[in-house]
């Protein structure tokens, strides 16, 4: 046996030993990853591009796991700049330390490593990860996360023949650092230059085929929009799709010939290989922007030598079609999710709202440079991560709480550029309204939670709009779109202590300040509600060299 094979075998034995030790201690199983993050060159949209690779791969490795597994990812930063990863849709119960954003974690310095440890606690579904600092997200470095149900937890459909991740997203030929410089100079980087699917574009996306199917079998496709600007419509030539899951919730299983997938969103469909054997295009096209772009990949029936028909199905037009499709999405009330009890046993529509927060997108210029924000406050990251400043009680000089009010200002004044942190009382049920007065689409995400998207409509929101809410079977999820000059309403219980990011998934808006953090503190200061800072947590800013605060009380 060669030295390399012996080392690999020894590593495998070690991982198995550690996993078995965890089982012996009564812990949930462990899944280990080691990532070497580098730059590399890939040809996309007929141009060589500098992209972020993980272990030489783009997209990065898929994280396959079960509910409650302990996920351990050792990240070696071999870039020439700081790095963080965030796990889009993972709720990190009691553990915002692992959220991987500038407000919760010090960056991983070049030439160093950091080990994340997190759990998809009581979660199932389709998600993705991506590098969160600066404009890294525009350079790749993303990958899929699939969380399957534990054994004996019923799933509302038969096991598919295979389970495929389909990562679709817009793409720019500009270097990510150049894009950041454009934004810093007050310039927009404009519309995307194309679309990629599983890291490929053009002819490379169609040959070889994306995957092969066998006639008569059913396949699960987990489709995520990992782009930074454009909503995408996804469809498969000659095949309908049965929607079964959306961002961790089982849905009512309706059939669709195409689906709008907005930035940061994920969904699962079942596709029957019930057509004449041949090659068929899977197509992703931009929506709601001029000069539409698309990409076509090939799904091949086993043994096929028949090329796909050149008649590619056209995407739908207009946003009215899209909002009507959203209204058709329903939570499957009788299905179990990560726990054996039915999803519908949680009656969110019967809970009294304790607070309403209206978040209107603000847009303005400061010193001639474009900024975005919410309610007149444009977020800027602090040198000391907000969570660390709060934990060590050194917030003075780092941030002040609640500089933004719960309602938009009556008159649009100049934007206030500060770290934007608001507080939410632990275990209160809150309604949040997102209002987008811009001419372009928005998509918003909340870390640490799943919320119920209960309503959306044109114009400004008013209390009368509550009469239109879906208070029975709105889908529980972590991201939702806000159409141009429209509003979207969500509801949730703030029962996960930590520091949690609310952000635009439109990364230009995010970079320019359309985000905030919500601090949720348990008054009990108990390990029942939140973990202490991990022993391996990185330190930076004002917390370097400080003694650890007292531990939270035992649960």
UniProtKB/TrEMBL annotation:
InterPro entries: Cu-oxidase-like_N, Cu-oxidase_2nd, Cu-oxidase_C, Cu-oxidase_fam, Cupredoxin
Record-annotated Plastocyanin-like domain positions: 37-149, 163-303, 384-523
Name assigned to this protein: L-ascorbate oxidase
PANTHER family: MULTI-COPPER OXIDASE, OS05G0485800 PROTEIN
Alphabetic keyword roster: Signal
Transmembrane segments: none
Lineage: superkingdom: Eukaryota
A molecular function (GO) term: oxidoreductase activity
UniProt family annotation: Belongs to the multicopper oxidase family.
Keyword hit for Transcription regulation: no
Keyword flag Signal: yes
Pfam families per UniProt: Cu-oxidase, Cu-oxidase_2, Cu-oxidase_3
Signal peptide from the UniProt entry: 1-26
